[in-house]
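Please decode residue identities from the backbone states below.
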């Protein structure tokens, strides 16, 4: 592994493929003190200077929608053991929230998102690359359900965005990056066997990394 004290794992896949579920399920089972999940969505560019109507028309599945410069800066800092303040994205208003998420002292950093393998410098930092491969029709149904129930979208808008942005961007930018993956997980979070295999590999990686002093002192205090 490239990094002895901190390991970067990338989990990519199409929109609503189940990559977030895979990342959080593995992190939860291994323990959140040593594994942190950072979503690429948190690094959508700041759009506060645009009216809400214009923000909604942005192609959020294109690489230009993301602040990869800030993301790379944060990932490199975490790999050096330095704390960072990760942005929090507001899907309803298509903008960053004022508050941030403090991230520090994690042995395994899991970066998940649709385009994380597209960015060459980020990809070169990853010790393990996982692609969650889910059929298009399943992803579309999941996206409809998620965007309507969780993000307050209307069906017509979800379908229009899928046809104009999501599907073509997947074909051009996301699907081709599957070739960079070390592991491909079919069916996403529903593939319990694949998740167990990946979790076992994560556990193996953790055993080779000393626990940070800050965590040891916290454990001793409790």
């Amino acid at each position: 592994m490239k990094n002895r004290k901190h390991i970067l794992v990338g989990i990519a896949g199409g929109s609503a493929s189940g990559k977030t579920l895979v990342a959080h399920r593995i992190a939860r089972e291994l323990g959140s003190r040593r594994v942190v999940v950072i979503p690429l969505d948190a690094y959508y560019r700041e759009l506060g200077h645009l009216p809400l109507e214009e923000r909604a028309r942005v192609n959020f599945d294109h690489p230009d929608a993301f602040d990869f410069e800030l993301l790379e800066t944060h990932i490199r800092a975490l790999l050096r053991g330095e704390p960072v303040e990760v942005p929090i994205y507001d899907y309803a208003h298509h903008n960053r929230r004022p508050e941030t998420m403090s991230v520090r002292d994690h042995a395994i950093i899991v970066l998940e998102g649709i385009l994380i393998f597209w960015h060459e410098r980020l990809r070169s930092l990853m010790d393990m690359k996982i692609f969650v491969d889910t059929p298009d029709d399943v992803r579309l149904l999941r996206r409809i359900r998620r965007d309507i129930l969780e993000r307050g979208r209307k069906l017509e808008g979800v379908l229009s965005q899928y046809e104009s942005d999501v599907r073509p961007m997947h074909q051009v930018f996301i699907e081709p990056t599957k070739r960079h993956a070390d592991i491909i997980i079919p069916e996403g979070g529903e593939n319990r066997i694949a998740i167990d295999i990946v979790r076992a590999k994560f556990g193996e990686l953790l055993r080779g990394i000393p626990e940070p002093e800050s965590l040891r002192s916290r454990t001793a205090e409790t």
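Observation: Residues 7-206 form a domain with the Rossmann fold fold (CATH 3.40.50.300).
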